[in-house]
Amino acid sequence: MDLLEVMRKRRSIRNYTDExxxxxxxxxxxxAGLLSESGKAKRPWQFIVVRNKEVLEYxxxxxxxxxxxxxxxxxxxxxxxxxEAQDVWVEDCSVAMANxxxxxxxxxxxxxxxxGRLRKADEKTTEEYVREKxxxxxxxxxxxxxxxxxxAVKMPAYDLEELDMDKVRVVE
Length: 172
Hints:
Layout: H1 3-9, H2 23-34, E1 45-50, H3 53-59, H4 69-72, E2 75-82, H5 89-106, E3 110-115, E4 120-121, E5 124-125, H6 126-134, E6 140-149
Antiparallel strand pairs: 1-2, 2-6, 3-6, 4-5
Helix pairs in contact: 2-5
């Protein structure tokens, strides 16, 4: 399958079956993140893989309104970036998230990007809430969480004919 076809079929999946994510698929998803482009090749990210169901349940309350898909997920990858090592850690971590999201889709694994940066969890930030449980260093900032599981629903691929080409401006 070519990359555009993978992108066309990639959808945010929020409902998962009880089927586990295969270890070899998880490793490929992580490798896709580690292969990501990074400003000055600093690779400021740290990926925290969570398989523990109690921790996933805890993380499902990391944002106001909750992110219930984490309760159903078989695992999640918490993406943090070293803000002291790289001024563009947000962009670098976003590229890594996107690569992992696409790899998951190409393998038939459902995923959903759960924004963590600039979000709240009741009386604290989402970052503070997640750090309390996962104990990552203060210089690492939360970018997002990628939930992973086998899709409980099949979503249709995007139709290339329906893309909003008005968003494109060509200068010659």
